[in-house]
């Protein structure tokens, strides 16, 4: 009798629980459908490529060459078109200077639908933060990038670069082609560790290499997640093999960050090291973070501190690695420009064999080549915002508050009206005369506005 009662109440419990879950699922679905309708209706006046009933444009975007796919869409749909990652996240994808200006000159917040995917990894650092807290951190960290802090970095860059070139000289003897991306990545991480994170002269250790591999993994997984709507929900994603791999790689990255922070804190315990820092006129990034400025109660919490270190560790080497790799690719493709750069540098150096801060400003042709390579291969090809108030574009079409915007920097940089023969590598596009006549939002490899 007793066990019958028990099983009755148990089955009733199961019934209630299933009912409850069903209602939750239903509410979530209704919420998503409403949101979808709102986003879609807002973009009514923007025609775009056909959408798959389930995947939206995700299938096209997942394929290699998807950046060029968007360029071909841009030809078909001038200024802007809707872009759907699955059914519930729909952006207005823009790639025209006046459209870019309308949004990026006013400082709308980041689109959390995209940037929240970063949270597990880099937390709420400068890249993801909003509002007063963003402003506070930004103000706090700006002096860490004062010219006087940056100047001595040039010697570090030169040293790490020489180490990379030595490696390549050996590899070149084998007379086989090899992938440079990974070596450039190690060089970039090595300079970052030494400059921004005050690491000694030891070069990359085992832990740094593990970190480097974890970040390669994380960037790929992030991209894949964004494009796969079934992965958008945190709870579901963490249960999948990809999600678990993401969490494991996050753990590796966080261990690395904690180690960097621990080592610097330990160094600060040392009396001599503290004196050295107090004597410095300009503090570096990590000095500032670790509370050199904390007397006014603006000390960062541990979570904030880790988020900033993780953010800079990622942003500081991933972008530069891809920027430098693509630049070298361009130089390899166009030996005539490579030779002009070499001549320019040889002339500046004279009989010296290493570069100094003052030399950089004299490298005008090299700078134009770097900009042209940023135009063709922007290290950050797409950035996202959510409108905090309505916007009306130059052609009279408008979007309401809450709409999602994707600025496609890659397609913007290939607009044939602004950049005649856009696929041609021509550094003279960045001569002072040519720059003077150009729309200020036509070239934005570093995004624009307050962010
Ligand atoms: C070629 C090199 C680089 C490129 C092309 C680049 C590009 C960008 C872009 C496009 C954004 C805006 C992102 C958005 O709007 O969502 C950004 C933000 C940011 N970048 Fe870079 N970046 C580069 C190098 C670096 C380096 C070396 C560091 C650090 C040492 C860094 C740290 C940051 C930070 C902290 C932010 C967020 C700023 C804020 O919102 O206040 N970046 N970067
Ligand atoms: C390129 O920019 C010009 C001038 O801003 C604009 O008229 C044109 O529609 C743009 N092309 C595309 C493909 O967006
Ligand atoms: C709240 C607080 O501690 N404010 C101090 C900030 O620092 C200045 C001097 O740098 C002090 O005068 C303030 O009292």
UniProtKB/TrEMBL annotation:
Main location: endoplasmic reticulum
Keywords (A to Z) from UniProt: Endoplasmic reticulum, Heme, Iron, Membrane, Metal-binding, Monooxygenase, Oxidoreductase, Transmembrane, Transmembrane helix
Family annotation (InterPro entries): Cyt_P450, Cyt_P450_E_grp-I, Cyt_P450_sf, Cytochrome_P450_Monoox
Keyword Plastid: no
Signal peptide from the UniProt entry: none
A GO molecular-function annotation: oxidoreductase activity, acting on paired donors, with incorporation or reduction of molecular oxygen
An annotated GO cellular component: endoplasmic reticulum membrane
Subcellular location: Endoplasmic reticulum membrane
Family: Belongs to the cytochrome P450 family.
Gene from which this protein is expressed: LOC103201931
Keyword Transport on entry: no
The name this protein goes by in its record: Cytochrome P450 4B1
Bilayer-spanning residue ranges: 13-34
């Amino acid at each position: 009798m007793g066990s019958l009662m028990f099983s009755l109440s148990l089955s009733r419990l199961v019934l209630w629980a299933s009912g409850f879950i069903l209602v939750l699922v239903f509410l979530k679905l209704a919420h998503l459908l409403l949101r979808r309708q709102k986003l879609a209706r807002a973009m009514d006046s923007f025609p775009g490529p056909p959408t798959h009933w389930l995947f939206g444009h995700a299938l096209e975007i997942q394929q290699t060459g998807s950046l060029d796919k968007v360029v071909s869409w841009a030809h078909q749909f001038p200024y802007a078109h809707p872009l759907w990652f699955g059914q519930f996240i729909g952006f207005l994808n823009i790639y025209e200077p006046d459209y870019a200006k309308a949004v990026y000159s006013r400082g709308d917040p980041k689109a959390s639908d995209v940037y929240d995917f970063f949270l597990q990894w880099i937390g709420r650092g400068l890249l993801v933060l909003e509002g007063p807290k963003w402003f506070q951190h930004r103000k706090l960290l700006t002096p860490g990038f004062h010219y006087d802090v940056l100047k001595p970095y040039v010697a570090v860059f030169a040293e790490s670069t020489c180490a990379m070139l030595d490696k390549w000289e050996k590899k070149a003897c084998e007379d086989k082609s090899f992938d440079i991306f990974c070596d450039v990545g190690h060089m970039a991480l090595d300079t970052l560790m030494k400059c921004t994170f005050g690491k000694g002269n030891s070069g990359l250790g085992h832990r740094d290499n593990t970190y480097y591999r974890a970040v390669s993994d994380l960037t790929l997984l992030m991209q894949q997640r964004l494009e796969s709507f079934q992965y958008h929900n945190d709870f579901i994603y963490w249960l999948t093999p990809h999600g678990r791999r993401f969490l494991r790689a996050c753990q590796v990255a966080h261990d690395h960050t904690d180690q960097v922070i621990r080592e610097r804190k330990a160094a600060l315990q040392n009396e001599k090291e503290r004196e050295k820092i107090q004597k410095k006129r300009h503090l570096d990034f990590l000095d500032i973070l670790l509370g050199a400025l904390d007397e006014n109660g603006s000390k960062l919490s541990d979570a904030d501190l880790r988020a900033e270190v993780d953010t800079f560790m990622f942003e500081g080497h991933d972008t530069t690695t891809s920027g430098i790799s693509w630049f070298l690719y361009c130089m390899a493709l166009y030996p005539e420009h490579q030779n002009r750069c070499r001549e320019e540098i040889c002339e500046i150096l004279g009989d010296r064999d290493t570069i100094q801060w003052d030399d950089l400003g004299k490298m005008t042709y090299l700078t134009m080549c770097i900009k042209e390579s940023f135009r063709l291969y922007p290290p950050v090809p797409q950035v996202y915002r959510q409108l905090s108030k309505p916007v009306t574009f130059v052609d009279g079409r408008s979007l309401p508050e809450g709409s999602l915007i994707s600025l496609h920097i890659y397609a913007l940089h290939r607009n044939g009206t602004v950049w005649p023969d856009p696929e041609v590598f021509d550094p003279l596009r960045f001569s002072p005369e040519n720059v003077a006549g150009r729309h200020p939002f036509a070239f934005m490899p570093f995004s624009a506005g307050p962010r």
